[in-house]
Amino acid sequence: MRPVSIIGIGSTQFGRHKETPLETLAVSACTEALGDAGVGARDIGTLYLGNFIGGVLSGQEVLAGLVGHQLGLPLSAPCSKVEGACASGGIAFRQAWMSVASGLCDFAIAAGVEKMSHAGTARVTEALNCAMDQQRDGPTGLSFPGYFGMAARVYGAKHPDWRQHLTAVTRKNKANGLKNPLAQMGEDVSAETVEHSPLVADPLRLYDCCPISDGAAAIVIAADEAVRERLSRAGAKAPIRIAASVQTRGAPDVASIKNMLSFEATVEAARLAYKVAGLGPADIDFVELHDCFSLTEILDAEDLGVVPRGSAGAWTREGRTQRTGDMPINVSGGLLAKGHPVGATGVGQLYEAVRQLRGDHANPVKDAAIGMTHNLGGAGVVCTVSILKRADA
Amino acid sequence: MPDTIPAGTRGTLVTFTVIRKAPAAFAADGVYAVAVVDLAGGRRVIGRVEPFEPAPPLGAPVKLARWARETPVFTPA
């Protein structure tokens, strides 16, 4: 595998885009990323597009081909949609990285897109349930908030102050979202508002859940040897090195998960990512992780090893995961505040990480040189973890 | 569930949640509780638990009362 870097990024606002077609959102993010990279569509060797429920909610498949056509990619460039529930975007990024790292092409686009807000909550909940084992979990009437509600009850049996832990996660991420111009719903929210919001899946309440979102994000990646000359030009942005991009699998159904306070796919992905990058948790300056629910941030942070096992809730309450804390987590606002346009989320996390490492993020982590992103699908059936580095790190 | 567990089988309540925003296909079920149960012998299954108010304690003994379509329904043992 040869060295590969991110040279361009683009993203729509995350939120409501009712009037904009699904593929138009993706094209818009890709066009911005190409412009940012200073690369023409004719130079792109392949496109991977993460999308989960475009077929169910918009009746639109062959999305990658639609996007590739509208961008004007060469006929020789394979355009593929990839799906792994909420980790679809992270998978698209890894596939694009492999294409360039292996030498198949010099430039690739990884994009993600989702459009959900035009459908009602019940239809969206049902569509998201496509990520469940329909022989085992689906027939019970379980929802994804329901899975994490069951996990939260297990967490509560271990941590008497569980409610304060979850509230601290929501309040931090909502506050971070206020600083992110792309975020759907940042808010200066009180503990009382969080803890009196309606129950969704006991004990999780509305403020423990990420919103329903539309949006797209895109990344242009390149082989370092292909951009060396370009980089000497004045004004070229520094490439951000991909130190690791890994994908793992985990249990596909609830009864196969023995410990509901951990995801084996995340633990394994983190282990592999650190190994590939030759780094450890202490080297990570910030993390963008998959906080689809407030509880999930706590589980993810412990699974990734960036916070000691059993202490993520306390760390959050003590402010140690804030932007200025020991381990800044989701300074973008995360899924809870930035939003969760499912197929776009993993690519959106990478967008945020690149902004931090370039030093032009609206909510900056001081001296950030190495960042980690974590994208989780279903109840841990698939996970991607990436580590990005500044070229001088 | 691909195979059937006989009614009366006993187990322990691992956890549960009350679904208040059901997926569209379950709208007719109203508000209901989905649970994880460890059966005697160690096998873990997913099903429903009744009643769920007041909340049953985790670790409570339960038994398989009946099957609702493909889903086992547990009640206090």
Q: What does this protein look like?
A:
The complex is a heterodimer of chains A (393) and B (77). By secondary structure, chain A is α/β, with parallel strands linked by helices. Chain A has a domain at 4-119 and 212-231: Peroxisomal Thiolase, Chain A, domain 1 (3-Layer(aba) Sandwich), CATH 3.40.47.10. Chain A has 14 helices and eleven strands. In chain A, strands 3-2-4-7-1-8-11-10-9 form a nine-stranded mixed β-sheet, with helices on both faces. In chain A, helix 1 packs across helix 3 (63-71), helix 4 packs across helix 14 (342-358) and helix 7 (162-178) crosses helix 11. Chain A is globular and about 60 Å long. In chain A, 62% of the residues are buried. In chain B, 0% of the residues lie in helices and 49% in strands. Chain B is built from no helices and five strands. The mean pLDDT of chain B is 94. Chain A binds chain B through residues 121-123, 125-126, 129, 135-137, 139-143, 145-147, 149-154, 157, 198-204, 253-256, 258, 260, and chain B through 1-2, 14-27, 29, 32, 34-36, 43-48, 55, 58, 69-71.
What would you say about this model in short?
The complex is a heterodimer of chains A (393) and B (77). Chain A is of the alpha/beta class.
Salient structural properties:
heterodimer; A: alpha/beta; Peroxisomal Thiolase, Chain A, domain 1; two-stranded antiparallel sheet; 38% helix; B: 77 residues; OB fold (Dihydrolipoamide Acetyltransferase, E2P); five-stranded mixed beta barrel; globular
Mean pLDDT of chain A: 97
- What name is given to the CATH topology of chain B? OB fold (Dihydrolipoamide Acetyltransferase, E2P)
Q: Estimate percent helicity of chain B.
A: under 10%
Largest sheet of chain A: 9 strands, mixed
Beta-strand fraction estimate of chain B: over 45%
**Element order, helices and strands of chain B?**
EEEEE
Seen as an oligomer or otherwise, the chain set is: heterodimer
> What is the alpha-carbon Rg of chain B in Å?
12 Å
Q: How many whole angstroms does the radius of gyration of chain A measure?
A: 19 Å
Q: Please provide the ordered H/E string of secondary-structure elements of chain A.
A: EHEHHEHEHHHHEEEHEHEHHHHEE
State the total count of DSSP E strands of chain B.
5
Major beta sheet of chain B, specifics? 5 strands, mixed, barrel
The assigned structural class of chain B equals: mainly beta
Mean pLDDT over the residues of chain B:
94
